[in-house]
Amino acid sequence: MSTIDKTYKTKAELAAFYSEREEKLSAEIRQLKKNNRVYIASELMTFGLAVVSLVVYCVRDFSSEWLMAGLAMLALYAVVRSFDVKNGRRIDKRLRLRTVYARELEYVRGDLSCFSGGSRYKDPDHPFTFDMDVFGRDSLFNRIDRTATTGGSDMLASWLGSLPRSAAEVERRRRAVDELAAKEQWRAGFMATGFRTAAESVTKGDKIDSNEILRAVGEVGGMNIAPKAGRAWTLAVAVAALACFAALIVLSIVGVLPATAVVLWGVVQMFVVIGLNSRSIRTISRAVEKLHAQLHVYIGLIRLIGKAGFESEELKELQAKLTEGDGGALASFGRLSEILNSLDRRGNFIGLILFNMFAMSDYFLVRKFLKWQRAYMPVIGEWVDCVSRIDALVSMGTFCFNEPKAVEAVVEDAGRVVFEARGLYHPFLGDAAVRNDFTVNDGEYYIVTGANMAGKSTFLRSVGVNYILAMNGMPVFADSLRVSAFNLFTSMRTSDDLSRGISYFNAELLRLKQLLESCRQAPRTLIILDEILKGTNSLDKLNGSRLFLQAVAKLPVTGIIATHDLELSKMEDDDPEHFHNWCFEIELADDITYTYKITRGVARNQNATFLLKGILGSE
Length: 619
What we know:
The chain is an alpha/beta fold and 619 residues long. Helices cover 59% and strands 10% of the residues. It is built from 20 helices and 10 strands.
């Protein structure tokens, strides 16, 4: 059973919760901004008093009282400045969180415009995602995706398009989704951290580019940079040189050696270190400069994952992979971040000279990089994959939390097609949806007839979309749903392709060929078809449809087929064990009444002529 207690039973209650959180954060932000103004005024005052005190100290015979006052004001300035920085971080954190709640409030109210539709994942040749509106504007992906990384987005798209093959795999994912759904504050913090800046969170909240991180890290890891710098003997030489330099400084201070000898040693040491390591430093800089903008955000996500008290098997395993070893992913990316910061500090010319003269900083920077390269490169790809998986699961948990009326499906390993639904409806329709009961038996075919706009296509998509949700461990839109693991293939939106010289009819044939190949490779398949062979004449369409269904019925295939061709329903007379007629009936009077309820039998009433007469009569 589900581990999540759905506190909010309706969308109205959920909207009130999000609105309350947004208002509370707005109030906190206003107060923190007031504090910010106080801090700025205090900084200006303390710094000004420090300057005045030091000026008076200089012009009044170097009075120690003014010097102490100046130093005290500088110390106070530093303290106020630190509070100001912390206050700024609190403002930034709350701005991000407020954006998370504001966006979820928009979702509950039916506005999906601030979320990604995943149009780049659209694939007309996919077995079912194109027909089932999985990707694109107002799609299933549009409703689920809250990913902070492009890797998480890709992972979510992959899961929606490639369904698990066992009930155990579904249950494992469902437990992870339920756990994250219950961790509302943690999820909100994760999503807020994923915004690269507070300004971006107010707009689209651009995702961290996982592929760019992998490419940059791969380039860095594959570099053969100054291998001698990583050897023990070079470290011994460097330590000895620094020790000698320190000794020369001491001897110069006590008057044994002239200062020029110390300066000469330091200058030579600086030029040698910079000369030997400058090429390696430039190579590292070019490779990792793309990481700097995104790495601190990625580290923030990993830090949150590491601190989370996960309980489900899936999440605990992913967390363990990120934290095990020599400090795990957090230590790895943290050390890489330190390297990046060290490279930034080299931009200060005076610092470059002094740090290389007194500490051989370039040598130790290259050595630190080589150590990081050896220790962590083999597992970076696995770590990015773990973050991507958790990122996708956070989106799925948010969807679960946001749909209080959706229920948990029962998924079983039956070795056959099982689909038993009570009160099934399409998730995109909300409260306006009409619920239907429907059972699919293995190896049987359901011919669904009905007038235009009577609900046939919506019903077919209700079956497909809810199956996709069930197999991903997410809640489904029904009173109850029991399914097994099977292959799904649909054909509902075939179109021509003039760029490749493919006509509509030819495109239909290619799709049916793809369907047959998929069915032959899978142990069990459910096919969902909306009109077979629409691109030919009525008689040819009827004969071709019969021929196709008779052929596919010999395979381990179950099917739901919507059609306007009432003659196709006679297949039930020829083979009542395998073919069954269902319909969406309408009522014709002064107006048309659409019930959107599926019932046994063949539709009697059609509406095309009736509606056309209405149009012609109005002119």
